[in-house]
Amino acid sequence: xxxxxxxxxxxxxxxxxxxxxxxxxxxxxxxxxxxxxxxxxxxxxxxxxxxxxxxxxxxxxxxxxxxxxxxxxxxxxxxxxxxxxxxxxxxxxxxxxxxxxxxxxxxxxxxxxxxxxxxxxxxxxxxxxxxxxxxxxxxxxx
Length: 142
Description:
- By secondary structure, the chain is mostly beta strands.
- The chain has helices spanning 55-64, 106-112, and strands at 4-10, 15-18, 25-34, 46-54, 70-83, 89-102.
């Protein structure tokens, strides 16, 4: 199984290009993902992971994702190689995004003026009635 779930901050705005063969949109960006543990006496370290989003998802990312914004990405790892003009072989490992989510708090999104939606996100159920909704802490059985 090849499944990746990441949450991090965009290191730059997504870069958009189109394929030569069939003019398909592809957005590329990088996420700074903090490592889970910090060694004593050291600063928290981050990994910088390249992300590629195709077609509609790429369009969504290029339109609504901005540098510094915290996002969640679900996708798969892909490796590829190519030869440059000098015949030197290059290798790259990247995550091909299959789902993309905003991960900033609503307050941060409102302050930055970002569109309050996600591509493939769970609906906001906080303000909807449900059989499982709890109206106050007094209703809790513990």
